[in-house]
Amino acid sequence: MSTRVLVCDDQALVRMGYTTILSSQPDFEIVGEAANGLEAVEQARRLLPDVVIMDIRMPLLDGIEATRRIAGPEVADRVRVLVVTTFNLDEYVYEALRAGASGFLLKDTPPEEMIAGVRTVAAGNALLAPEVTRGLIGRFGARIRDDDSGADRRLEQALAHLTAREVEVLRLIAAGLSNPEIAEALFLGRETIKTYVSRILAKLDLRDRVHAVVFAYRIGLATPDAS
């Protein structure tokens, strides 16, 4: 089956470039385009693509808010969002992840990396390396806690669904460890850790390990200065 992609950018030439690059692949289908954030939300809800390529700075509604409306934690039929922008600022990456994005690329990314990025997000994986996740979320860890101070009870109830071992694995994910590193730290097999990670994501209703990191900081399980 083809991966259905919605392209959202306020520049027609940029949309054309993405469409040309992705359409060259037999497993991609461009199902629509949007020139502003409101169009992006409307088309994402109507078309339910597998991946939305989202610009940040767009008229009428910016890409961060558009992402929140189609991929945020309160959305019933969430769509995976890959944010692609010219702005390589931590604040934008942080806000995009908080809004529900599953990946972040720059517009000068080579075509082959763009293609790989869409495939990664479509497969349900996060497009940020563990070490990048650790540095980024770590710098904003305190703010995450402040932003979600009113949600503590709901988050604690969700955490209660995890076993002690799963909590331990989640803490190591939040510390930026990859699956092989977690396996080594806990003296367990890699496939076992992969199973734990899948269970954690399912129990907490999270789509990928980036959002598991955000959850860990929100609940206070991880802190910016944790090793």
* Overall outline: globular
Distance between the termini: 42 Å
Helix content: 40-55%
Largest sheet: 5 strands, parallel
Number of domains: 2
DSSP E strands, number: 5
Weakly predicted, low-confidence segments: none
What is the CATH fold-level name of the largest domain? Answer: Rossmann fold
Global Rg = 18 Å
**Total of helices:** 12
Describe this structure in words.
By secondary structure, this protein is α/β, with parallel strands linked by helices. The chain folds into two domains: 3-127, Rossmann fold, CATH 3.40.50.2300; 136-219, Rossmann fold, CATH 3.40.50. It is built from twelve helices and five strands. Strands 2-1-3-4-5 form a five-stranded parallel sheet, sandwiched between helices. Strand 3, helix 3 and strand 4 (80-85) form a beta-alpha-beta unit. The radius of gyration is 18 Å and the shape is globular. The model has no long low-confidence stretch (mean pLDDT 82).
Spell out the key features of this protein.
single chain, alpha/beta, 2 domains, Rossmann fold, five-stranded parallel β-sheet, 12 helices, 227 residues
